[in-house]
Design goal:
With 92 residues, the protein is mainly alpha-helical. The chain has a single domain, classed as 5' to 3' exonuclease, C-terminal subdomain (DNA polymerase, domain 1). The protein contains six helices and no strands. α4 (38-47) packs antiparallel against α5 and α4 crosses α6 (74-91). The longest helix is centred in the last third of the chain and has 18 residues, at 74-91. It is globular and about 35 Å long. It starts with a helix and ends with a helix. This is TfoX/Sxy family protein. Residues 7-82 form the TfoX C-terminal domain. InterPro entries: TfoX-like, TfoX_C. It comes from Gilvimarinus gilvus.
């Protein structure tokens, strides 16, 4: 297993399936995820026609914050959804 993959697996909310999805869109380290941000990473996954729910968006943000996705505030979850919808509309 690659060192970067181990690093991603150590993050909260990310299991092997999530890590494989992230690697498929070019994210192979915490630094890659941090640089791209949760919303952009989520949108990149969606652009590849990989079926994921909003929980993936929350999980990515939680991984960046070292918090379980379910512990994110409702306001932050709504902000993430709104931002992803706005960016998705802009790119359409």
């Amino acid at each position: 297993m690659a060192n970067e993959q181990c690093e991603l697996l150590k993050l909260k909310n990310l299991g092997m399936a999530s890590v494989n999805i992230l690697r498929a869109v070019g994210i192979s380290s915490y630094q890659d995820l941090q640089a791209m941000g949760a919303v952009n990473a989520y949108l990149k996954i969606k652009e590849r026609d990989i079926s994921v729910s909003k929980v993936m968006l929350y999980a990515l943000q939680g991984a960046l914050m070292d918090v379980h996705w379910n512990d994110l505030s409702p306001e932050l979850k709504q902000q993430l959804v709104t931002e992803s919808e706005n960016q998705s509309t802009e790119n359409a």
